[in-house]
C-alpha cells in the first residue's frame, strides 16, 4: 500500500513543497526504511512500481520523493541557476530538512539512489555517517567523464528539437524546470572539475554500488573507484546488457541484489 503526501521545507530563502510517496508504512518502525533518490530528470512517478517491488522483496517501508524542481515539487524559480555544488546542497541541506519535516527522528534509513541521486546519497552518508544505515547506488557519478558530457549535450539537442519536453511533462509540473536545472549545470564548463572521490573516506555504512556494463553516461570506474575509498563494506555489481538505468534495464537482478544486501547487512532493531 502507498500514499502520496507533501512536505514543506525552507530552502534558498523560500518555502519549498516536496512531493513524497510512502510505501507500506504499516510495516512499522522495526522494518528497514528505504529512501529512493531519483536521477537528474526523475521524479516520484518515473520510478513507477520499482520502489514497491524493492520494499516487498526486502520486507521494508519506502519513501520516494521528488527533489525541488522535479515532479510535483516546487519548480525552480525563474532566476534560480544551480551551481557546481548543487548535489552537495541537496545532500547537506534538502535531505536533512526533509527528514526533519517528516519527523523521522533518530531513524537511520537506507538510501537507494540512481545517477545524480546516487551521488547525493554518497554525499549524505559522507557528511552524516551516523545517520544512515546503508547505501544502494545505481550508476552514481563521483567525477565527470567525457562520455557523460557528450550524452548530456545530445539530450540538450533532443530537448530543443523533439517531443522530449512533452514526454517529461507527464512527470513534472514544469518540464523546463527539471530539464534546464540539470542540463545547464552539467554542461557548465567549471563543472568538469567536479569530483567527490576525496569525500568518500568518511562513509562507514555498507555500500552496494551497481552499474550497467553498457552505461552510456559513465564508465565502470565510477563504481570501481568507490570501493577502495569507503571505510566499510562495499560490494560491486556490474550488470551485462544494461545501460544507465539498471532498475529499468535489469529490474529483477537489481531487486534480488538489493533485498539480499539489506537483509545481510541490516542491524536488527530490538
Overview of this protein structure:
The chain has 270 residues and is α/β, with parallel strands linked by helices. It is 34% helix and 19% strand. It is built from nine helices and eight strands. α1 (50-58) runs parallel beside α9 (251-265) and α2 (86-101) packs across α3 (116-127). The chain is globular. 43% of the residues are buried. It comes from Acidovorax cavernicola. InterPro entries: AB_hydrolase_1, AB_hydrolase_fold, AB_hydrolase_sf. Pfam families: Abhydrolase_6.
**Would you tell me the overall average pLDDT?**
95
What fold name goes in the CATH topology slot?
A: Rossmann fold
| Secondary structure: number of strands | 8
Give a quick account of the main beta sheet: strands, pairing sense, barrel closure.
8 strands, mixed
What is the radius of gyration computed over CA atoms, rounded to a whole number of angstroms? 17 Å
Looking at the overall shape, the CATH architecture is 3-Layer(aba) Sandwich
Helix/strand order: EEEHEHEHEHHHEHEHH
Structural shape: globular
Q: Give the helix level as a range of percent.
A: 25-40%
Would you state the CATH class?
Answer: Alpha Beta
Strand order of the largest sheet: 1-2-4-3-5-6-7-8
- Unreliably modeled segments: none
CATH superfamily (homologous) name: Alpha/Beta hydrolase fold, catalytic domain
How big a fraction of the residues is strand?
Answer: 15-25%
Q: SS-based structural class?
A: alpha/beta
Distance between the termini: 25 Å
**Treating each run of at least 4 consecutive H or I residues as one helix, how many helices?**
9
Provide the domain count. Answer: 1
Domain AB hydrolase-1: 34-255
GO molecular function: hydrolase activity
Pfam families: Abhydrolase_6 (PF12697)
Keywords: Hydrolase
Amino acid at each position: 500500500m502507498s500514499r502520496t503526501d507533501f512536505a514543506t521545507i525552507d530552502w534558498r530563502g523560500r518555502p519549498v513543497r516536496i512531493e513524497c510517496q510512502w510505501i507500506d508504512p504499516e510495516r512499522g518502525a522495526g522494518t528497514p526504511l528505504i529512501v529512493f533518490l531519483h536521477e537528474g530528470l526523475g521524479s516520484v512517478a518515473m520510478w513507477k512500481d520499482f520502489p514497491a517491488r524493492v520494499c516487498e522483496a526486502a520486507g521494508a517501508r519506502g519513501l520516494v520523493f521528488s527533489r525541488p524542481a522535479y515532479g510535483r515539487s516546487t519548480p525552480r524559480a525563474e532566476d534560480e541557476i544551480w551551481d557546481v555544488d548543487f548535489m552537495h546542497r541537496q545532500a547537506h541541506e534538502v535531505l536533512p530538512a526533509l527528514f526533519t519535516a517528516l519527523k523521522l527522528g533518530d531513524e537511520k534509513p537506507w538510501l537507494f539512489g540512481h545517477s545524480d541521486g546516487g551521488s547525493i546519497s554518497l554525499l549524505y552518508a559522507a557528511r552524516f555517517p551516523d545517520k544512515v544505515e546503508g547505501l544502494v547506488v545505481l550508476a552514481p557519478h563521483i567525477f565527470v567523464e567525457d562520455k557523460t558530457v557528450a550524452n548530456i549535450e545530445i539530450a540538450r539537442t533532443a530537448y530543443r528539437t523533439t517531443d522530449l519536453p512533452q514526454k517529461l511533462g507527464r512527470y513534472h509540473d514544469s518540464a523546463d524546470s527539471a530539464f534546464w536545472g540539470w542540463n545547464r549545470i552539467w554542461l557548465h564548463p567549471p563543472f568538469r572539475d567536479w569530483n567527490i572521490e576525496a569525500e568518500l573516506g568518511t562513509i562507514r555504512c555498507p555500500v552496494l554500488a551497481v552499474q550497467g556494463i553498457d552505461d552510456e553516461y559513465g564508465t565502470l570506474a565510477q563504481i570501481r573507484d568507490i570501493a577502495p575509498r569507503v571505510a566499510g563494506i562495499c560490494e560491486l555489481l556490474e550488470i551485462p546488457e544494461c545501460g544507465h538505468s539498471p532498475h529499468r534495464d535489469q529490474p529483477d537482478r537489481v531487486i534480488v541484489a538489493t533485498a539480499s544486501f539489506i537483509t545481510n547487512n541490516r542491524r536488527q532493531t530490538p
